[in-house]
């Protein structure tokens, strides 16, 4: 059965060596057609149906489709459409897709796994009838094209050969390569371009819009605008020679003419400015750059510049680039600046956006303005413009030719009406790559059957803690309670403290569908009005949630402590608990403060509160930072689901109490798991930020006469502590808010992957740290639970648990998901802020947080909001001129000078001029600057905006 | 770029084999005349030559004499041209020494050593081309050479490797699979009695999977045994026809 065939391959690995690999050709590879009478029954994948219903005017017989690699890669949206079925994906194609685009490969694989698509992989490279050897002088592309034709031809013969059923099934090769098509037709095959084929289909009008516009003719002015990209081979040579550098392109959100490239293996960023220098790079592409001569170096303008979405006639790119060049940049401000010479890898995804009305009514070419400001506008072709104009839509970029100002793309699907909260939420989730579809059948099948009963067997395996007075303390309205606490006096005079965490790993078994889904989601995402669960609701809000007065499984950590909070002993156990009460922070606080109460739960809370204060003081003494970030809370109307009130979050003593014990539990689990699994513990580290990060804080504090010492965490904590202005209680908080912004992201990692000296958690001043206390909403905690369960012999280990590389891969995904969840949460707050202020105009007290070249960043403590107060828009000459003093970090206009930390009164309203990006609009009320500030708003109450105020808006 | 996919969703390995399939084995006995026994084996692209001398009197120092059994002396080496990159391979480098020791242990266990006291058997193994599974091919070639030399063995010694990818055990792994970082188990067995005479593991493999992967290697040994046995029988009948012994 094995036919051995050897082929020779040359690869570069330092020097050229000859690699000889065996290649076995087989005769047992099936064609995958259900109607086939010849092949062995297949053992994998989705079969091609016996009577395919692909109705095309070009091929009237029933047929299967064989696309070539470029068709699969570039027409992914067409391939994914549910009407495209019965497609043969050749192994040659699959391999090429895998090498050329990993997201493309992922999408292709999910199509192959979808039982309703009937996509079948034919292993033509291993089939002795379809394997072709590369001929002398033949390029590998040509060879692959030939292999594809050979396989198509084999299918054609095979499906018509003797012994097959009477119904004749044809095959159609789809390729946009003219040469390939010509050769195929010569061979007697049916071959078409995708465009020809799709347009020939019956009832598939919507497919036409999905076609990628690789050959769309370009707009009228057909002249080359952009410099050419260098070919990959030249880039590689250049990088080796040190002429070029490889890095990822990061467009600026605030100014579309500016971007940075983070060069691989280098700390510093290279600045890129202007259209020509950016040369068609899109955010997150991997690019090759060349440094500009030092005299051409530039710096970010610290100007907030948005490409107008309304203006149809834009300044030509040259004019804009010229404008930049004319500005003289003082030498000391110049940053390393470069230009893009080539693209190493495009990282395009699908983008949400809205259609900009086209000047020509009946035209089919339109501009889409993406929701993400880092992404350039995209030109698409569609016949449904009238329909789409009110919609949020998803588009994909196909290419960006040299003669087009914008990249070209195609329409993918619509999401809903602009401004609908559901649509906006959907946009937010898509843009932050939050997996939010309903849980699949396979995942739901992993859930325990109801009614869920605790068996005697369960009681035997777990420590029974039902008799202990345990309670939980959470924010109001919390339904996924993953932690509960207790404290009781022991007979020896010491205290027993228990932290009880929902035993999620009992329900989520490794390797199951629910486990994979949770690992992929990584975290529960909290939006203002919605929660996107990591695990199905039955677990998150019921079986795992440690609600009051029901028996629940828990993973408990018990400490014996002295009254001075010195730990005498620590033990870990799986348990059954019965929480006696689920308090909110405020309720718990009231119980503690109410001297009349003296029941066991209250005593327990008082003990906990007292111990927490000691523990906190210890951490602070060790150099832990107390940071601040303004948090906002909306009161949502239960009927309209509109926000009716908004407040900054209240922090109570009890918040800190719960937090302190969670920290203690997390550190204890980190120590325990690392001890047992030095190579594969899942930990969390927080690197110390480079001192340069702190510059804005140091500068700001200095303006008030304080020195901030950033040399060590402890020194920083102390100097923050002492930086207090008695007359301005908010000053210290602001300083902490600014310090928070200087911090690095804390990340999950696998202990075996980095040196031990880097395990440190800077913010908490802890040697090691992990997450153990929220397994309902964080996957990292589930891994930690599993490791810990193995440590105490409560559960069995499984292979990938102890493989450090696999754990690291999981950690990388978790880090990404957490970051995205955070951004999505913030975006959701913005969305609600906009809805809340849509019909309101109010005056509020604010503080200057940052001073920029043309704006002030203002913090409004009442709402925990931050907004930009524009001083000039950069283009029109506003009447009162502000002078920006870069050195002193001030803006001056007449007798008024703005410093960081200055108090201002602000008028808040919403700028609705851009439907896609409603903006919080800040206007100065106090201090008064004639011609700039607006009169104070008469009443604080919300009321619909009056005409008069509308006028005020245009004054700017 | 995308790494290697050692096992495709369709269930094929990089070279087109299914997980349980061996590479193609070709072998011959009696390839030299000077040696008392010799054999040549190809397992895919791994090609090994083995020659056996003995049993004969102990050469060199008398102190090595074992009074109750035979002294098995192995020597393993790789030809300079055996890998893609040509390199000088001095005899007795650390890797060869280790391999030599492993072979010695294996055959100490398989040869009926007590039949030849105070004598010596030399096994020389030369890897001509290497594409993974050097130890296995060396053991299999040596077995054939020992049979060719007429030395009494408890049973054939067959060796086979296995690995573990995507929750699936793979048998008889080639260089590419070997160097991918996935775990590797090498087993040498006496197939009839299913005794394992040599077992080595490289890389990390979870305990839960150990038996599955080992079973795959043992199964491979059995399959190899069937092939070698057929070759030996063919060889014997060929030789006996030449000598006119056939009845
Ligand atoms: Zn068939």
From TrEMBL, chain A:
Similarity comment text for this entry: Belongs to the RNR ribonuclease family.
UniProt keywords, alphabetically: Acetylation, Cytoplasm, Endonuclease, Exonuclease, Exosome, Hydrolase, Magnesium, Manganese, Nuclease, Nucleus, Phosphoprotein, RNA-binding, rRNA processing
Region ranges (Disordered): 933-956
Positions of the PIN domain: 63-182
Xref: SMART domains: PINc, RNB
Subunit note: Component of the RNA exosome complex; within the complex interacts with EXOSC4, EXOSC7 and EXOSC9 of the exosome core complex (Exo-9). The catalytically inactive RNA exosome core complex (Exo-9) associates with the catalytic subunit EXOSC10/RRP6. Exo-9 may associate with DIS3 to form the nucleolar exosome complex, or DIS3L to form the cytoplasmic exosome complex. Exo-9 is formed by a hexameric base ring consisting of the heterodimers EXOSC4-EXOSC9, EXOSC5-EXOSC8 and EXOSC6-EXOSC7, and a cap ring consisting of EXOSC1, EXOSC2 and EXOSC3; DIS3 associates with the base ring of Exo-9.
MF (Gene Ontology): 3'-5'-RNA exonuclease activity; endonuclease activity; RNA binding
One Pfam family linked to the record: Rrp44_CSD1
Signal peptide residue numbers: none
Places the protein is found: Cytoplasm; Nucleus, Nucleolus; Nucleus, Nucleoplasm
Stretches with biased composition (Basic residues): 947-956
Protein's UniProt name: Exosome complex exonuclease RRP44
GO biological process: CUT catabolic process; nuclear mRNA surveillance of mRNA 3'-end processing; rRNA catabolic process; rRNA processing
One GO CC term, this protein: nucleolus
Cofactors, names only: Mn(2+); Mg(2+)
PROSITE patterns: RIBONUCLEASE_II
Top-level taxon of origin: Eukaryota
Keyword Transcription regulation on entry: no
Native species: Mizuhopecten yessoensis
Residues covered by the RNB domain: 462-794
UniProtKB/TrEMBL annotation, chain B:
SUPFAM superfamilies: Ribonuclease PH domain 2-like, Ribosomal protein S5 domain 2-like
Pfam families linked to this entry: RNase_PH (PF01138), RNase_PH_C (PF03725)
GO biological process entries: nuclear mRNA surveillance; poly(A)-dependent snoRNA 3'-end processing; rRNA catabolic process; rRNA processing; U4 snRNA 3'-end processing
InterPro entries: ExoRNase_PH_dom1, ExoRNase_PH_dom2, ExoRNase_PH_dom2_sf, PNPase/RNase_PH_dom_sf, Ribosomal_Su5_D2-typ_SF, RNase_PH
The keyword Nucleus is annotated on this UniProt entry: yes
Main localization of the protein described in the UniProt heading: cytoplasm
GO cellular component assignments: cytoplasmic exosome (RNase complex); nuclear exosome (RNase complex); nucleolus; nucleoplasm
MF GO annotations: RNA binding
Residue stretches making up the Exoribonuclease phosphorolytic domain: 21-151, 155-220
Keywords: Acetylation, Cytoplasm, Nucleus, RNA-binding, rRNA processing
Known partners and oligomeric status: Component of the RNA exosome core complex (Exo-9), composed of EXOSC1, EXOSC2, EXOSC3, EXOSC4, EXOSC5, EXOSC6, EXOSC7, EXOSC8 and EXOSC9; within the complex interacts with EXOSC2, EXOSC7 and EXOSC9. The catalytically inactive RNA exosome core complex (Exo-9) associates with the catalytic subunit EXOSC10/RRP6. Exo-9 may associate with DIS3 to form the nucleolar exosome complex, or DIS3L to form the cytoplasmic exosome complex.
Family, per entry: Belongs to the RNase PH family.
Protein known as: Exosome complex component RRP41
Species: Mizuhopecten yessoensis (Japanese scallop)
């Amino acid at each position: 059965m094995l036919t051995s065939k050897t082929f020779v391959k040359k690869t570069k690995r330092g020097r050229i060596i000859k690699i000889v690999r065996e290649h076995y050709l087989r005769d047992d590879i099936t064609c995958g057609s259900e109607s086939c009478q010849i092949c062995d029954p297949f053992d994998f994948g989705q079969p091609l149906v016996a009577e395919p219903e692909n109705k095309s005017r070009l091929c009237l017989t029933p047929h299967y489709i064989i696309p070539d690699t470029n068709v699969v890669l570039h027409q992914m949206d067409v391939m994914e459409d549910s009407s495209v079925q019965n497609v043969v994906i050749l192994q040659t194609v699959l391999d090429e897709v895998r090498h050329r685009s990993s997201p493309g490969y992922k999408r292709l694989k999910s199509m192959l796994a979808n039982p309703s698509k009937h996509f079948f992989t034919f292993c033509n490279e291993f089939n002795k009838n379809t394997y072709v050897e590369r001929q002398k002088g033949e390029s590998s592309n040509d060879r692959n094209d030939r292999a594809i034709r050979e396989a198509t031809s084999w299918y054609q013969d095979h499906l018509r050969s003797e012994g097959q059923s009477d119904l004749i099934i044809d095959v159609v090769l789809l390729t946009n390569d003219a040469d390939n098509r010509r050769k195929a037709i010569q061979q007697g095959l049916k071959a078409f371009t995708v465009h020809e084929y799709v347009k020939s289909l019956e009832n598939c009008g919507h497919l036409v819009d999905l076609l990628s516009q690789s050959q769309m003719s370009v707009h009228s002015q057909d002249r080359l605008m952009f410099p050419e990209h260098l070919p990959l081979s030249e880039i590689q040579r250049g990088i080796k020679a040190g002429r070029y550098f490889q890095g990822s392109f990061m467009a600026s959100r605030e100014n579309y003419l500016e971007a940075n490239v983070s060069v691989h293996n280098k700390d510093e960023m290279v600045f890129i400015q202007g259209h020509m220098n950016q040369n068609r790079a899109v955010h997150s592409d991997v690019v090759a750059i060349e440094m500009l001569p030092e005299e051409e170096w530039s710096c970010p303008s610290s100007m907030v510049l948005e490409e107008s979405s309304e203006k149809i006639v834009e300044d030509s790119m040259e004019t804009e680039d010229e404008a930049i060049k004319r500005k003289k940049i003082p030498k000391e401000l110049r940053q390393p600046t470069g230009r893009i010479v080539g693209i190493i890898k495009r990282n395009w995804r699908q983008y949400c956006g809205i259609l900009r009305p086209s000047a020509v009514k009946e035209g089919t070419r339109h501009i889409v303005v993406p929701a993400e400001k880092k992404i350039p506008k995209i030109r698409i072709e569609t016949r449904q413009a009238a329909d789409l104009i009110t919609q949020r839509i998803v588009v994909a970029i196909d290419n960006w030719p040299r003669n087009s100002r914008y990249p070209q793309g195609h329409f993918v699907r619509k999401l809903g009406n602009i401004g609908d909260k559901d649509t906006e939420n959907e946009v937010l989730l898509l843009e932050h790559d939050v997996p939010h579809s309903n849980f699949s059948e396979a995942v739901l099948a992993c859930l325990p059957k109801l009614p869920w009963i605790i068996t005697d067997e369960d009681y035997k395996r777990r420590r029974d803690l039902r008799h202990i007075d345990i309670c939980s303390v959470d924010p109001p309205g919390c339904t996924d309670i993953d932690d509960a606490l207790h404290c009781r006096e022991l007979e020896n005079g010491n205290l027993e403290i228990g932290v009880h965490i929902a035993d999620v790993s009992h329900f989520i078994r490794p390797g199951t569908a629910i486990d994979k889904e949770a690992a992929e989601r990584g975290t529960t995402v909290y939006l203002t009005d919605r929660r996107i669960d990591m695990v199905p609701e039955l677990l998150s809000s019921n079986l795992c949630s440690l609600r009051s007065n029901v028996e629940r499984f828990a993973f408990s950590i018990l400490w014996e402590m002295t009254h001075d909070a010195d730990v005498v002993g620590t033990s870990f156990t799986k348990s059954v608990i019965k929480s006696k009460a689920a308090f909110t922070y405020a309720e718990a606080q009231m119980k503690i403060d109410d001297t009349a109460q003296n029941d066991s739960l209250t005593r327990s809370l008082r003990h906990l509160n007292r111990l927490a204060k000691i523990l906190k003081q210890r951490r602070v003494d060790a150099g832990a930072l107390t940071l601040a970030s303004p948090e906002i809370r909306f009161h949502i109307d239960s009927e309209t689901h509109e926000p009716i009130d908004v407040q900054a979050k209240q922090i109570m003593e009890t918040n800190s109490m719960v937090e302190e014990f969670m920290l203690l539990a997390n550190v204890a689990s980190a120590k325990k798991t690392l001890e047992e699994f030095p190579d594969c513990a899942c930990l969390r580290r927080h690197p110390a930020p480079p001192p340069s990060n702190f510059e804005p804080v140091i500068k700001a504090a200095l303006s008030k006469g304080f020195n901030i010492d950033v040399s060590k965490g402890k020194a920083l904590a102390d100097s923050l502590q002492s930086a207090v202005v008695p007359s301005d209680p908010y000053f210290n908080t602001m300083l902490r808010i600014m310090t928070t912004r200087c911090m690095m992201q804390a990340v999950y990692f696998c202990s075996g992957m980095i040196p031990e000296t880097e395990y440190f958690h800077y913010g908490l001043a802890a040697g090691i740290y992990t997450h153990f206390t929220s397994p309902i909403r964080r996957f990292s905690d589930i891994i930690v639970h599993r490791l810990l369960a193995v440590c105490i012999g409560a559960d069995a280990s499984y292979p990938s648990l102890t493989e450090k590389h696999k754990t690291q891969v999981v950690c990388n995904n978790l880090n990404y998901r957490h970051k995205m969840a955070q951004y999505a949460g913030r975006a959701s707050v913005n969305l609600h802020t906009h809805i809340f202020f849509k019909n309101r105009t109010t005056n509020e007290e604010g503080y200057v947080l940052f001073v920029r070249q043309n704006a002030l960043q203002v913090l409004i403590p009442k709402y925990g909001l931050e907004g930009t107060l524009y001083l000039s828009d950069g283009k029109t000459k506003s009447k009162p001129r502000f002078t920006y003093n870069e050195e002193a970090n001030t803006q001056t206009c007449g007798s008024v000078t703005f410093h960081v930390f200055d108090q201002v009164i602000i008028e808040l309203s919403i700028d609705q001029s851009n439907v896609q990006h409603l903006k919080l609009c800040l206007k100065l009320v106090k201090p008064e600057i004639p011609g700039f500030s607006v009169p104070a708003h008469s009443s604080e109450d919300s009321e619909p905006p009056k005409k008069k105020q509308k006028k005020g808006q245009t004054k700017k | 770029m995308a790494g290697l996919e050692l096992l495709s969703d369709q269930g094929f390995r990089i070279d087109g084999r299914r997980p349980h399939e061996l590479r193609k084995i070709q072998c011959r006995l009696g390839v030299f005349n000077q040696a008392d026994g010799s054999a040549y084996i190809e397992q895919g692209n791994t090609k090994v030559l083995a020659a056996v001398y003995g049993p004969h009197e102990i050469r060199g120092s008398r102190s090595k004499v074992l009074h109750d059994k035979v002294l098995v002396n192995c020597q393993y080496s790789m030809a300079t041209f055996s890998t893609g990159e040509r390199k000088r391979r001095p005899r007795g480098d650390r890797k060869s020494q280790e391999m030599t020791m492993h072979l010695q242990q294996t055959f100490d266990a398989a040869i009926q050593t007590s039949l030849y006291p105070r004598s010596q058997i030399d096994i020389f193994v030369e890897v001509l081309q290497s594409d993974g599974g050097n130890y296995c091919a060396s053991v299999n070639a040596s077995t054939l050479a020992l049979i060719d030399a007429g030395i009494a063995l408890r049973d054939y010694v067959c060796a086979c490797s296995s690995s573990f990818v995507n929750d699936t055990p793979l048998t008889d792994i080639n260089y590419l699979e070997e160097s991918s970082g996935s775990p590797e188990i090498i087993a040498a067995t006496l197939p009839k009695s299913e005794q394992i005479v040599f077992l080595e593991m490289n890389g990390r493999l979870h305990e839960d999977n150990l038996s599955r992967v080992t079973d795959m290697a043992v199964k491979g040994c059995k399959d190899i045994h069937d092939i070698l046995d057929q070759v030996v029988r063919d060889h014997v009948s060929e030789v006996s026809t030449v000598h006119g012994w056939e009845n």
